[in-house]
Design goal:
Radius of gyration: 22 Å
Shape: globular
Strand content: under 5%
Order of helices and strands: HHHHHHHHHHHHHHHHHHHHH
Helix content: over 70%
Oligomer: single chain
Largest sheet: none
Number of helices: 21
Distance between the termini: 28 Å
Amino acid sequence: MLPLIKLFLVVLILLILIRLKLEIGLVLLLGAVILEIFFPVPLHLFFRNFLGSMLSVQSLSLAGIVVLVLFLGRLLQVKGNFTRMVTSLREALREPRLILAIPPAIIGLLPMLGGALVSAPIVEEASQRWSLSPPLKTFFNYWFRHIWEYCWPLYVNMILAAAIVQVPIMKISTYQFPFTFLAAGLGLAILFRRVEPQKSPARKMKWKTVLAYIARSLWAIWPIMVIIVFIFIFHLSMLLSLALAVLMTQIFFRLSLEKRWQIFKESFSWKTILLVLAVMAFKGVLEKSQALASLKTLFNSDGNWGYLLLFAIPFLLAFLTGVNHAYVGISFPLLLPIIGQGSPDMILLMFAYVSGFVGILLSPAHLCLVLTLDYFQASLKDVYRIMLLPVVIIFLAALLVLVIFRLL
């Protein structure tokens, strides 16, 4: 049990440092050092893992993605595209509050690390109608952005899970899509409970008119639609797709060179870049530490300890790293003796997947969460107060399925 206790201590120290209001990027860098203290490796290996992970091609590409996302979001905001999108949605929707949910959900179909930043300006624009608090804006943007990851087959974590257990990805989607509906329902329940209704003009519109307004709202964010086309149809990388979309905006948007440079300076943040690199450094040190090797032998692979393992390993890895595909890529190979391969137990697979994803939703190292917190200047503690209940309900739903179909 000692390795598990050490990992819980690491989590506790990180949460204390965050509560002391240290920058999360700095907290994660310190977290890598704390991991070295609790799970020591030779110092030369530690520095190689630390710097190698921080400065890897993947990390630098991720930093580039975040820079381009921030720039694109700021550009569309300055040009008024998000305002036009919200205006068109208001015309199309009879329930104005749905404007706070639909844009993040639409953009959530795009598997983009830190992608909540794309929808954050839209939620900010839409929320002006109600003067919402920063924690509520953070929750709506963050929650609806992530409702698809239980079943959407284009997410890396879904692709990895299917590859590891060797089943068609649509089989996993079929078993897990109810959790997307549950997450959407829980988010809407909080939305309708916490945001006051506003009357819309009483009018009837033909479907053609409604579709026209929806088309206008999508045209307002055409660079994002272009990114989706590049990724899903032409199978380009996220970084290249973003770069091409940004290049197209520079060609078609009429702005002075001075204004373009001003938008870039306003969107660029060294603190955000440090945060991205710190996340990757912490993840790299964790993966190479003795923590995971120790956990492999901690539990038996059968009986009730096995069920505990299905929760503990994905949840801890997800909570510590905050990287969606990391908990699948690292924990699922360890869980194959329990879940099975080729003809896996889909209920056990579902439980392990959901256990990890609730850890992702709560992780203070999750880029979408920390970047959204930073954008809206919200307190993590206040956002947790809103988010904890729906997260617990989702986990209890997965646990209930496990109990009914495997333990009774």
